[in-house]
Each structure stands twice: as structure tokens, then as C-alpha cells.
Design a protein that fits this description.
The two termini are 52 Å apart. A hairpin with a 4-residue loop joins strand 7 and strand 8 (153-155). The longest helix has 27 residues, at 310-336. By secondary structure, the protein is an alpha+beta fold. The chain is built from 25 helices and 18 strands.
């Protein structure tokens, strides 16, 4: 078994490129080996800012050799009357790489044909890699690529060297005018090189011992965390590790050295989120807190070099961070001289979205929409005053014109909440403003406060109906206005907060608050219909991503998803019911009922006449319906969906007996209509739980 190593040496890659580069290299070489029949044990890929290294272990040296029989033309076509091979036979032999005299006959169910034996396989791993590697490297995808050199080769950054070794031998190929070899380059300070690599097995040791490079990202991450924790502990603090920043820092260095710096304690008067954002955004540094969770005047950063003068390095970091914090303090002080009313006036000069007017217009709509949502009986509005709701909507976007958000756009909403508390804004409204962009994705929490949830739904609903009215509807992967995220956010809030509000009413109210002067591309009813259809699709997607079966999801949503919370609870109940032994039989019976009624197309109302009940089976069904009706309505009022579905166990035998003992499609039109109404009386309740016709049992 052989060991193959490939190293692509590059100028510094952005940290965000590394994870995808590792996946692509792994998958593309694994696909090559599998396609060409090169068995291997495992493939690993590691990256640093200046290199990507692939190891393929236990790789067979060449493809297996095997003999194949290839069928050619029929004997009649292969040989003439004189027994001599025809052009067909000669061409077949030539194509198979054998002499025509080596052809033999082969009996098949379709007749006798000429055939040839040939040996295939035996191609060396080195030759396969050499021929495929340049194309694989050239095809590696990046968010941005650049041209350089006379060959106009495209890559994320210029390639500078390539190491390709199969055991001790170089795998020769050329890519971007660079020939592969065995010379690698190390860290710019701790092992510039170049260094010769004797064989694939010694490659990692050369990087670690001569080049001064920590190749594995996990090792660099561990070194940062361990060193950072030790430095913070020395000042009685702990590092505020942030996973996304750790991912980035891990990809910014080949030789990570944690550095603890300090800053003037006077900066601690700034909101902690401002300090942390400034550290993280500009300096890729972590904050440090004490045991009580209060920020300390220290920061943890990561250098890419072990300096002979560590204090000088630390001082340099501190000087740069101080300048950043001075900027942040200036923005904060400037903002504190303003007011929400001043900011709100400026919003009239900030465009929301083309024909939809300004952010000031949007906030006036949000004010009314928040007030309306808070007044709905299905929302936890007892703790939300109409005035607080109106204030939250009116000033929701005010911080967009603040100095702080102008510098740190990730703080929009958050700074509005902080500034609101400092400036004396309604406390509940300030908290809501801080939460308005939640949830920001499938893994982020929904707003903790009711008013925050109301404002978030209002904001998202306003954006949805506005964009749909302009025809800006997501297609395929294109969703420039993040409308899928808006719909998902509303659905999650309704489910997780337990709000009982009809989404159709929410969207209709949001649309009604837009000015009559707006020139819509879609008529209002058509736009609303598309919004509701789109929203239902996102609810379906949400349920599916939670692991529910597709048929069960469709059955529930076909019964209605206007009340999203109720739909989620009906789905939970149906999933639990589907695990019971009798579920398939129950579902099949009610599906039969639904299919009969649908095929007849009759206007069955569910009201039947007792005087037309002649057969024992239909009388029994009528009695079962009467018994079930009051129980069903009581359970429905209390949202006890699991018990409602359990009613199928009691009703289904009676329905089956009805089908066995009664001719539903009686000749007498009145009797036939009465029996269809009996079935409708059963279905009209069970169909509120799920569309059993959508189930295939």
C-alpha cells in the first residue's frame, strides 16, 4: 500500500475559504480514486492560510489487472465467403488492441459472434493522479477567484509551490506553470525554507520540525484556547470564546501564539456589546470577563509568530485597539446627544425599498401593525400595552441612522434597545427593539419578550407583503430580500410562543397599512394569495426539517395551516397516532370516506334525516356520530388533538360496518344523499385534524 501527499502552497487565503477547500479536495480525490478503481484506506485534508495538504493513506499502487471478453460483430459480418476477416472484423480487432488472428467465436442467445480477450487495469496510481490532478486543482470552487501568470490560471490566490509525492517518488504534473516536486516552504519567520521532503510519510514531520507550521486546524484551535485560558486565568479572568471568531482566528495563522493585552479601564463605561464588537470585528480579539460576568480591561488576541520581543508585540496590539475603542466612544457619545425623535425624523430620508417608501414610512406602518397584533385575542397581549406596542413599532428602525450602527451594522436593533433604555424610552419597547431581528436563522432563538415577538412578526410580515406586491418573489436559490427567513421567523414565533393568530389576517392587515399611492406590480388579492401560498410552503419545510414524514405533514397542512401553532400540535398528535398498530386501518377507512365524497362531488352538508335511516348499519353509524359529536367539539375547544385522533378507534369499526352492510350509492336519490351526508358528518370533523386522502397506506 502507498501513501500519497499533495500540498498546494499559496499566498494567504481568506479564513472563510478554508473549510470548503478541505471538503472539495477530499471529495474530488475520493471520487477520482473510486472512479478509477484505486482502493484507499482514508483521506485527510488540512489547511492553513498558506497551504492545503491532502494525505491519501493505504492507496493501492495500481489498478487491479483483469481479463475482459468484448463481443464484436456477428460471424457472418466478420468473415467473408472465403473465410477471410472483413473490414468489420479488422476494425473490431484494432479497436480492442489485438491482432485479428486472436479473435475467437462466442455463442450468445442472439447468435454466434466474434470476440476478443483483452487485459485491462494495471494503470499506476502515479499516472492516474498525474493526469487528473491539474484539472481537479483548476476546478476547485471559491467565492472569488483571480487570474495571474501568463497562463491566466484561475484560483483564489496565486499558487507558489506544489508538492506531490507517492511514497518517495514525485508525481509529475504542471499546474499554473508550476511543476510538482518535493520542495515545500514553511512559515515566513520560523522556517521559510524551502525544505526537501524525502517521502510522503515524513511530510508532516518536515512541516512541524523545520517549517514551524501547525498543520491541523484542530491543533491550532486547541493551542489558542489552552494558551488563552492560561493567560486569562493569570489576571483572574476567563476568555469569552466565540465559536465563529475561533473558526476565523484558527484560519488566520500557521503558528498561533495567544497574546493577552490590556486597555484603559475608562472604556468599560461603554456598553459591553460595543467593546466586544469592536474587538472582534476590527482586531479579531476576544473579550475577557471576571467570575461575575463583568468585562475586564483585557483582550485576548492571536499572533502568527513567537516574537523575541513579546512586550513590543503586545504594545502594538494595544495601541491599535485603543484607536478603535476611541472611535467607538466617539460614536457612543455622539449618539447620546441625539434622541429617538431626531433619529425618527431622519428615517424619512432613508429608503426602505424603492417604491415602498422610506424607513420612516415603514416604522409608521409597524407602529399600527404592532398595536393591531397586540390586541388579538390569540396573542399573549395581557402583558403588552397598546401604547408600548405602538412605540416599539414607531422607533424600531431609529438606530439605523445612529453613528454606532453606521460603524457596526451587526448591532442594528441591539443598539436601539441599549439606547432606548439610556434615553428613557418605554422599557418594554426598548427590549422589543433589541429583539426585533430574532430569529435570524433556524438555530437562533425567538424573542424572549412578547412585545419583541410582536415587533419581529410585524417587521417580517410588512417586508413579505411589500416585496410580494412588487413581484420580488423568491425563485430557486435566489432570495435577495431573505423572504424565506422572514416566513420561517414568523412560523417559529407562532409555534414557540404559542400564539393563535390567523396568518392570513396578519398579512392582510400588513398589506392594508401600505399607502394607496404605491404602484404595485401584482394586484393586492393576487399578492396576498401568493404570500399565503409561500408561507404555507415554508411551514411545510419547517416541519420536514424537524424530521416529520412528508405524507403526515401534507395531511396536516391540507387540513389548514392558518393557525400555525395548532397545525404543529396536530402534526405532533398525528405522528404519535401513526405509530399505533391500528393507524393504517383507521387512515384507510377515513381515506375511503374522503375519496367517495370527492368523487361524487355532491354538496354534502353533514345534515342527515333520521327518518331515512333504514338499515341497522346506518342507524349504528348515526348513533356513533351523535355520541362522537359532543365529545369531539369539547376536545377541539381544548386543543386535545391526541385524544381527538384516538376517537378514530371507536368510530372506524362502525364506518367499516356501514360500508359492508349498506349500499351508499342507493338508487333512491334522497336515500343516497342521506347516506353521503352521514359520511360527511363523520369526515367534516376528522378532516379538521388531517386530510386522510393525502395518506397512502
Amino acid at each position: 500500500m502507498s501513501h500519497f501527499v499533495l500540498e498546494l502552497g499559496v499566498e494567504e487565503l481568506p479564513a472563510r475559504f478554508l473549510a470548503s477547500l478541505e471538503r472539495e479536495l477530499h471529495d474530488r480525490f475520493a471520487a477520482l480514486f473510486e472512479e478509477r478503481g484505486l482502493a484507499f484506506g482514508r483521506i485527510t485534508v488540512d489547511t492553513t492560510p498558506r497551504r492545503a495538504v491532502l494525505h491519501a493513506y493505504d492507496l493501492i499502487a495500481s489498478t487491479p489487472v483483469r481479463e475482459e471478453v468484448a463481443l464484436g460483430p456477428s460471424v457472418k459480418a466478420a468473415y467473408g465467403p472465403d473465410g477471410q476477416p472483413t473490414k468489420a472484423a479488422q476494425g473490431f480487432a484494432r479497436g480492442q488492441g489485438v491482432d485479428v488472428s486472436a479473435l475467437f467465436t462466442q455463442e450468445t442467445p442472439k447468435g454466434t459472434y466474434v470476440a476478443a480477450r483483452k487485459t485491462v487495469g494495471g494503470e499506476s496510481a502515479a499516472s492516474i493522479i498525474a493526469s487528473a490532478a491539474p484539472a481537479i486543482i483548476a476546478a476547485l470552487p471559491f467565492a472569488k477567484r483571480m487570474h495571474w501568470s501568463e497562463s491566466r490560471f484561475l484560483f483564489a490566490r496565486p499558487l507558489r509551490w506544489v508538492v506531490a509525492l507517492l511514497d518517495a517518488e514525485v508525481v509529475p504534473f504542471t499546474v499554473a506553470d508550476i511543476e510538482s516536486g518535493r520542495m515545500t516552504t514553511g512559515h515566513r519567520v520560523h522556517g521559510r525554507g524551502p525544505f526537501e521532503v524525502a517521502d510522503a510519510d515524513s511530510f508532516d514531520a518536515v512541516l512541524a520540525e523545520k517549517c514551524g507550521v501547525v498543520l491541523a486546524g484542530a491543533e491550532r484551535r486547541s493551542a489558542v484556547i489552552a494558551g488563552g485560558d492560561a493567560l486569562a486565568a493569570a489576571v483572574n479572568g476567563r476568555v469569552l470564546w466565540k465559536e465563529s471568531l475561533l473558526d476565523e482566528v484558527q484560519g488566520l495563522s500557521e503558528h498561533p501564539v495567544p497574546v493577552l493585552g490590556g486597555f484603559d479601564p475608562s472604556f468599560l463605561k461603554l456598553p459591553s456589546i460595543v467593546l466586544l464588537t469592536s474587538m472582534e470585528t476590527h482586531q479579531k480579539s476576544f473579550g475577557v470577563e471576571d467570575a461575575e460576568g463583568r468585562l475586564l480591561p483585557y483582550f485576548l488576541t492571536v499572533s502568527n509568530v513567537t516574537s523575541l520581543e513579546p512586550e513590543l508585540v503586545k504594545t502594538g496590539w494595544e495601541r491599535v485597539l485603543r484607536a478603535r475603542l476611541e472611535d467607538a466612544r466617539f460614536y457612543w457619545d455622539t449618539d447620546m446627544k441625539a434622541s429617538f425623535d431626531i433619529w425618527a425624523e431622519k428615517l424619512d430620508h432613508v429608503i426602505f425599498l424603492g417604491p415602498l417608501g422610506s424607513m420612516g414610512d415603514k416604522c409608521r406602518r409597524l407602529s399600527e401593525l404592532c398595536r393591531w397584533i397586540a390586541a388579538q385575542p390569540g396573542v399573549a397581549s395581557a402583558a403588552v400595552s397598546a401604547e408600548s406596542a405602538a412605540v416599539a413599532g414607531r422607533y424600531a428602525k431609529a438606530d439605523l441612522v445612529s453613528q454606532m450602527v453606521g460603524e457596526f451594522d451587526t448591532l442594528q436593533g441591539i443598539m436601539g434597545g441599549i439606547s432606548g433604555h439610556v434615553m428613557g424610552l418605554d422599557s418594554a419597547a426598548a427590549d422589543a427593539i433589541a429583539e426585533q431581528y430574532l430569529p435570524a436563522g433556524p438555530d437562533t432563538p425567538v424573542p424572549a419578550t412578547d412585545l419583541g415577538a410582536i415587533l419581529s412578526m410585524a417587521d417580517k410580515a410588512d417586508t413579505l407583503v411589500g416585496c410580494f406586491g412588487l413581484g420580488n418573489i423568491p425563485t430557486g436559490a435566489a432570495d435577495p430580500f431573505a423572504l424565506r427567513r422572514c416566513a420561517l421567523g414568523i412560523a417559529r414565533i407562532l409555534i414557540e410562543k404559542g400564539y393563535r393568530i390567523a396568518v392570513e389576517d396578519l398579512f392582510a392587515k400588513a398589506q392594508s397599512l401600505y399607502s394607496e399611492d404605491i404602484r404595485w406590480k401584482l394586484e393586492k388579492p393576487a399578492a396576498l394569495a401568493k404570500v399565503n401560498e409561500f408561507f404555507a410552503g415554508r411551514v411545510k419545510n419547517l416541519f420536514l426539517t424537524q424530521g416529520a414524514d412528508t405524507l403526515l405533514v401534507e395531511a396536516v397542512l391540507n387540513a389548514g395551516c392558518s393557525d400555525v401553532w395548532a397545525a404543529s400540535k396536530r402534526l405532533e398528535a398525528l405522528v404519535a397516532e401513526s405509530r399505533k398498530p391500528d393507524f393504517a386501518a383507521n387512515a384507510q377507512t377515513f381515506k375511503r370516506v374522503a375519496n367517495i365524497l370527492r368523487k361524487q362531488g355532491a354538496e354534502a352538508t353533514g345534515s342527515y334525516r333520521a327518518d331515512l335511516l333504514a338499515e341497522d348499519a346506518e342507524k349504528a353509524l348515526a348513533a356513533a356520530i351523535e355520541s362522537m359529536a359532543s365529545r369531539f367539539d369539547a376536545l377541539w375547544a381544548e386543543d386535545r388533538f391526541d385524544e381527538l385522533l384516538a376517537l378514530m378507534d371507536g368510530v372506524r369499526p362502525t364506518v367499516d360496518a356501514f360500508f359492508d352492510g349498506v349500499m351508499v350509492m342507493a338508487e333512491d336519490p334522497a336515500v343516497r344523499a342521506n347516506r353521503l351526508n352521514l359520511l360527511q358528518a363523520v369526515l367534516m370533523r376528522m378532516a379538521r385534524l388531517a386530510d386522510f386522502a393525502a395518506l397512502q397506506m
